[in-house]
Specification:
7-stranded mixed sheet; alpha+beta
């Protein structure tokens, strides 16, 4: 086990053996939470290491596609010196809520020794070492294998990515701090998903368990003077309030914005607790310490401070949030318009009152044959609605030749006397009464053409039916305890029972409402 002791004389807390790892496109990934999102590569990094997010970084190889050797050393503390014998060394801070870390090839190459390696929970510093990074086209059998070694130790402060030893043959990467800050802020104020919620609870993800972990500090240093002004830091529907405590200290607290920009404003705060921002100076420059932040937020806050300290008053995330808000507003308006158009089709015009819209009744069907009549019934007092229902039921029984059938006449008389209908009319939706209608030899049998309500698609449904069966629901409707439902259903079924004379009946109904 060579190269274990290195420059730091203390033995490592643990060390894996060298493992063969298959890499693709010159890349492998180091992560503490599988599948976690972040800022992505090619935003901040050097020739060896790019930061992907709070839980992930990407290491770069010399070989494009093939095998390298890698191992992980977990140290009891920061190394006293930089190990020698490496071509490139870079380091960054990761958040490891579960105390696990894996190294995998870009296209999924894995090694058992590099999977779920035990590391300290919380913030960890990852120093990546690399040597013999040769492209396969220039490699010979005499060349040693390409090797990458990760040194890991626990930290309590989130500090920037650092190039410890630059590869002389490496190139310069464009740094994009504004883009990084934008993505960082967006990760702190994510919009809720518009997808339907999963109806069952998902099992707890052990990689996301940060219970019991302390809050941490974000540290940034600048050689030149910097200032942190109090005020409001905009973040779409949310905002950060920076309030000065003294000459060196401000409080940082999340709050809902006074003027949200989304149609359905975000009101869940990233952090309910107040944290503190301290700016101090020393002979080496100026140091900002953002203390008391959640460990999972430290990476994002560090990127935000990197931008704010160098470009005060610039908020690159706001343009993205405004675009998202405009798209969300347009979608809400489109949804509202489509809903209004759909309801206009369903109701034969503008929707009726909220009360009518939620009724379990023939309200929509009546609206599509006589929209005004529905509104007029809705506007009547309850007593008049009962009268209209009884009038419509009697008209339906009369046109179908049922008015003089004894047991039906008795039901009409009970309704006129404001008594309850017989039980066969009131139980199970009047099923027993309807079955009796179909089996009673005294009931006439008349076939009519039904002109049903125009469907939402615009097609008209016309069919032949037994008139008595079409009319009878108008009488059963009187059993409904809601006088509005009774009136709507009685009117509609009576209209249908009139067949070709439906329009004449509807004219009479308007007159009856005067």
């Amino acid at each position: 086990m060579d190269d274990v002791r290195g420059a730091d004389d203390r033995p490592p807390a643990s060390v894996t053996g060298w493992a063969r790892l298959f890499v693709s496109h010159r890349q492998y990934e180091v992560f503490t939470v599988p599948g976690a999102s972040g800022v992505g590569i090619y935003v901040l990094g050097d020739d060896l290491l790019h930061i992907d997010g709070p839980n992930q970084l990407t290491g770069f190889c010399g070989i494009h596609t093939g095998w390298i050797e890698a191992r992980v050393r977990v140290l009891p503390g920061p190394p006293a010196e930089v190990d020698t014998g490496w071509d490139a060394i870079s380091e960054a801070t990761l958040w490891s809520p579960s105390g696990r870390l894996s190294v995998v090839g870009l296209m999924g190459g894995t090694a058992e020794a590099l999977t779920d390696v035990a590391v300290p929970r919380g913030l960890i510093r990852v120093r990546v070492h690399a040597r013999d990074r040769l492209h396969e086209t220039g490699r010979t059998d005499d060349d040693p294998p390409e090797r990458h070694e990760l040194h890991i130790w626990a930290v309590s402060e989130e500090t920037p990515r650092r190039t410890v030893l630059a590869d002389p043959s490496g190139g310069d990467w464009e740094q994009k701090p504004a883009k990084a800050a934008e993505r960082a802020m967006l990760s702190l104020v994510p919009r809720p998903s518009g997808r339907p919620a999963i109806p069952w609870p998902l099992p707890a993800n052990p990689y996301d368990d940060d219970a019991g972990l302390p809050r941490v500090t974000v540290v940034r240093h600048r050689p030149a003077p910097v200032q942190v002004a109090g005020g409001v830091l905009p973040a779409g529907d949310l905002e950060v309030r920076l309030e000065r405590v003294d000459g060196q200290t401000l409080t940082w607290s999340w709050a809902t914005a006074s003027e949200p920009i989304f149609p359905h404003p975000l009101d869940t705060l990233p952090d309910d607790e107040q944290s503190y921002v301290r700016l101090t100076s020393d002979p080496d420059g100026f140091t900002l310490r953002h203390e008391g932040v959640l460990g999972r937020h430290a990476f994002a806050l560090g990127l935000i401070w990197d931008h704010l300290l160098d470009t005060a008053g610039s908020y690159p995330w706001m343009e993205t949030l405004r675009v998202q808000a405009a798209e969300a507003t347009a979608l809400v308006e489109k949804t509202r318009r489509l809903k209004a158009e759909r309801e206009a089709e369903q109701w034969g015009g503008s929707p009726p009152s909220d009360r009518v819209r939620v009724l379990v009744s023939q309200a929509r069907s009546l609206a599509r044959i006589d929209r005004l009549l529905l509104d007029r019934i809705d506007a009547l007092p309850a007593a008049r609605q009962r009268e209209v229902a009884r009038w419509a039921a009697r008209r339906a029984m009369r046109v179908a030749g049922l008015e003089r059938i004894g047991w039906i006449a008795d039901a009409l008389a009970a309704a006129d006397a404001d008594r309850s209908l017989p039980r066969p009319f009131t139980e199970q939706g009047g099923t027993a009464a309807f079955n009796r209608l179909l089996s009673d030899p005294e009931v006439p049998r008349t076939t009519i053409t039904l002109h049903l309500a125009v469907r939402a698609s615009g097609t008209r449904h016309v069919t032949d039916a037994l008139q008595q069966a079409a009319a009878f629901p108008a009488l059963i409707a009187l059993a409904n305890e809601d006088p509005l439902v009774a009136a709507i259903d009685a009117i509609y079924n009576a209209a249908i029972a009139h067949g070709d004379d439906r329009d004449r009946f509807l004219t009479d109904a308007h007159t009856a409402l005067l």
